[in-house]
């Protein structure tokens, strides 16, 4: 392909430039007056980061013993009596179901009752599925011991090993997707990275085995009932969305090929009420974003080619940029829950930076490379900087409960990480102007306030804030 060398496209090629700059300008003016004041970033009511927790540590030791036991079903009464199982299902349908609207509550309850009553020969799928659901739901409980999530996750993984030899079904795809997501939410997520990727591969293999890509090979032939058919359609798109979002947060290439998909989007059923329709609207929004994420991840070039875009790459860059801008404007009139809208905005902001990613490679790039990119791609640099400012301000303006809630989602936490990296880069780029460096420091400190606020409930945020406090704070 022909290289355009130092081609610098006009700003109109990137519609997000004006859109993001108009938002970031007000934010920068709001914070620049606080530069010389103590507490220049937003203050949160936070607790001191603790390295140990007495009562929780004791419970963790108890759970550790239980985690070494063989898979058990029904759940042990000491941990999961029926009343608690129902409580966890309620939490699941409040917090998780809007993202994975595949199974209605009545069907879920029927399967749980059936599984609990079939003590002698339970299906391996359903114990694994329900333990995963319980583990995910525990993440959103203020009263339950969070080590219960580890116990349920261990049981889910154990039952998953039993089920691996069985032929996959449609429900296998959903069970595996939830299990992989549950590993991402685990407080020991870093110990589960390889396992998460392995289960993500199993999802793809199950989809291929079932022929879920096409309605003609699977769904239309297997199901006569409209509800069953729609459930299969939604399960496929749940797996698709998870697969592509995993690529955002871990860099894993999407396994599901967009060009081979011949399956309709989810649709409303006659039995859906207003709440169901709002959840479906949010789900369709996430599907659309996941499709765009797949295109952007396939577009991203290697570091060596970042400063010499081809004509084809420039066209795709402009096209994806325009799509992100259109989706952000569409959210201005969306009727979904405010936190769901915030979630989608943060993912789109994150994708915008990943699209203009030359300035995310600071760790591997040399100084002369950074200088060259600043001269040849000024619009991408400005878009990355302004988008990072908008991400940080969006997150830090949330109430503490909302902040903790939204950052439980790996895609949203990744947006904060991406923004922090851009801020840090802008404090250290050679020949960067003083105003740019000051703004970088202001918003980097602003992002550190978010990590400090998240530290009591997020081990990842606690680690980042602790590292900053011990090794970098003095230089700021």
From TrEMBL:
It is found in: Nucleus. CDD domains: fungal_TF_MHR. One of its GO terms (biological process) is DNA-templated transcription. Keywords: DNA-binding, Metal-binding, Nucleus. One of its GO terms (cellular component) is nucleus. GO terms for molecular function: DNA binding; DNA-binding transcription factor activity; zinc ion binding. InterPro entries: AtrR-like, XnlR_reg_dom. Coiled coil: none annotated. Its main location: nucleus. Residues 196-272 form the Xylanolytic transcriptional activator regulatory domain. This is Xylanolytic transcriptional activator regulatory domain-containing protein. It comes from Lichtheimia corymbifera JMRC:FSU:9682.
């Amino acid at each position: 392909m022909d290289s355009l060398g130092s081609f610098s496209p006009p700003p109109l090629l990137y519609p997000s430039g004006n859109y993001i700059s108009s938002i970031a300008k007000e934010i920068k003016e709001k914070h620049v007056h606080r530069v010389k004041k103590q507490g220049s970033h937003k203050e949160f009511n936070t607790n001191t980061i603790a390295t140990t927790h007495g009562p929780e540590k004791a419970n963790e030791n108890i759970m550790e013993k239980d985690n070494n036991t063989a898979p058990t079903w029904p759940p042990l009464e000491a941990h999961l009596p029926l009343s608690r199982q129902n409580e966890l299902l309620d939490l699941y349908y409040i917090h998780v179901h809007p993202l994975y609207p595949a199974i209605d509550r009545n069907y879920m309850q029927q399967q749980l009752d059936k599984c609990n009553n079939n003590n002698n020969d339970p299906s391996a799928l359903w114990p694994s599925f329900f333990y995963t659901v319980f583990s995910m739901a525990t993440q959103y409980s203020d009263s339950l011991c969070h080590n219960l999530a580890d116990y349920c996750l261990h049981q889910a993984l154990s039952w998953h090993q039993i089920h691996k030899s069985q032929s996959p079904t449609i429900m296998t795809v959903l069970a595996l997707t939830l299990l992989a997501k549950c590993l991402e939410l685990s407080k020991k997520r870093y110990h589960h990275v390889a396992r998460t990727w392995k289960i993500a591969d199993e999802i793809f293999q199950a989809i291929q085995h079932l022929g879920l890509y096409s309605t003609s090979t699977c769904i239309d032939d297997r199901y006569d009932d409209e509800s069953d058919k729609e459930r299969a359609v939604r399960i496929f798109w749940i797996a698709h969305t998870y697969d592509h979002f995993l690529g955002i947060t871990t860099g894993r290439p999407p396994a599901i090929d967009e060009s081979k998909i011949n399956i309709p989007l989810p649709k409303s059923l006659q039995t859906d009420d207003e709440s169901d329709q709002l959840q479906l609207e949010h789900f369709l929004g996430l599907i659309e974003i996941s499709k765009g994420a797949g295109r952007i991840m396939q577009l991203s070039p290697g570091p060596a080619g970042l400063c010499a875009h081809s004509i084809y790459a420039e066209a795709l860059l402009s096209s994806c940029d325009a799509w992100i801008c259109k989706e952000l404007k569409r959210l201005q009139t969306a009727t979904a829950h405010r936190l769901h809208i915030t979630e989608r905005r943060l993912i789109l902001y994150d994708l915008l930076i990943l699209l203009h990613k030359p300035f995310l490679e600071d760790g591997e790039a040399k100084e002369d490379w950074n200088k060259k990119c600043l001269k040849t791609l000024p619009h991408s640099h400005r878009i990355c900087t302004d988008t990072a400012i908008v991400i940080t301000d969006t997150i830090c303006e949330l109430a503490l409960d909302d902040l903790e809630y939204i950052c439980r989602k790996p895609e949203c936490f990744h947006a904060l990480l991406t923004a922090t990296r851009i801020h840090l880069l802008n404090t250290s780029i050679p020949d960067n102007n003083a105003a740019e460096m000051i703004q970088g420091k202001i918003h980097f400190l602003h992002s550190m306030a978010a990590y400090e606020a998240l530290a009591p409930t997020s081990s990842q945020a606690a680690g980042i804030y602790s590292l900053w406090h011990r090794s970098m704070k003095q230089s700021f």
